[in-house]
Amino acid sequence: MHAIGSARVLRAGPLTVIALILLSCTASDVGKQRQALPAQVPEVPDGREMAAAHEAFGREEFGVAGRYYQMARASEPDSLDACLGLAASYDWLNRFDLADPVYSSCKKIADDSFLYHNNVGFSHLLRGDLDRASVSLAQAAALRPGHPVVENNLAILRDASNG
To answer: Along the 163 residues of the chain, how does pLDDT read in single tens digits?
Structure first.
């Protein structure tokens, strides 16, 4: 599962550390068709784009979430939270062509983050690229041993590899 922001957000200086939102992802979720990116979304007050994005992602409205994450990135281009949220939204829309350049941007922001490696690994799981998923998830596990999201993704990887 991707790890993105939620109501349980921790703060580390000016950077928001991304917490869990999807707690029950399984291998059966891989490959599901999701809704497309909407042409527009309802306006939100300045500074509320990230909250709107997290809320939409939590409702599995990945197209809406993607639009709000785009807005958040426009106002905070160095936000890892907004960057990973946008890439994860694209992943769930099966728009890996859009996700890949965003992950490249995330890597420039914080390539030493377990969240970055976890999300890239999960992206590769969604694509069925188990070898690349394994590499990224191993990096995430090395950076944050025992983290429940990473451990869950490693279990999904094992199930997919055996299945």
So the answer is: 766 543 333 333 222 223 333 333 444 444 455 567 899 999 999 999 999 999 999 999 999 999 999 999 999 999 999 999 999 999 999 999 999 999 999 999 999 999 999 999 999 999 999 999 999 999 999 999 999 999 999 999 999 999 7
Rounded Cα–Cα distance for residues 48 and 71 (Å): 10
- Beta-carbon contacts of 34 under 8 Å, excluding residues fewer than 6 positions away, are 60, 62, 63, 92, 93, 94
In a 3-state reduction of DSSP, which class is residue 39? Answer: coil
Q: Within 13 Å, how many C-alpha atoms sit on residue 10's CB side?
A: 6
Q: Which domains does the chain have, with CATH numbers?
A: 10-20+32-162 (1.25.40.10)
- Record the pTM: 0.81
